[in-house]
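ESCALATION

Customer reports they have been waiting on this structure for their group meeting. Please prioritize. Original submission:
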Amino acid sequence: MDQSEKSRSFLNLVRIWIWSINSARLKCAAFRILVGQANSVSTTTPSAQPCDPFAEYHVRPRFQVEVPHALEEITSRIRSGLKQENSPCQGKINKDFVTLQLHTDEQHFWSPQLTLSIEKTEEGSLLRGLYGPRPTVWTMFVFFYTAIGFSALIIAIVGLTNRMFDEPSNILWWIPVLLIAFLSLYWVAYKGQKLSHDQMVKLHQFLEDTVGVRCQ
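Update from on-call: job pushed to the front of the queue and completed.
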């Protein structure tokens, strides 16, 4: 194989690799749409029921809302709510940063926590909330996602290089296997969030009741 043929072969392999990446992205997007549709169908409620802010699936749901209260008043309200005997959750308050989670005896592997940052504004404060699993669980998922992505990159480089030099490239069969692993991990995260749905609603209601606003 001369140099020009090798160059053309390499360019063709690069095109195939780019196409495979785009195809994987389209599959992930389609999977998200299907999951979102299934979720919206399964969580449909009558209009008389209160709006469920977690009716649609999102990776680490978040929100932001402006409130007419000063930062100190918001943290004071949350602190007072946490001290109530029937408080549904526990938490920590550090100046403009709040962390809320269920009581220890109610927690399970997928139990969520709410991290809330509070910023001062001219008219009051801006609340930015982020729901997610506990740090250990989130770190585990990030590790697996990174490992799958890095493995796919290495396998693609080795496999395409072998094909360019007319050597066995059976290693490329691991690409669809890793894609299936990625989609499986995504599905597990989706099911985990479904299992923690009621607890997220409980944290959300506590925040709304203590701050006195509707956060969506």
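Sent to customer with the following note: The radius of gyration is 24 Å.
Escalation resolved.
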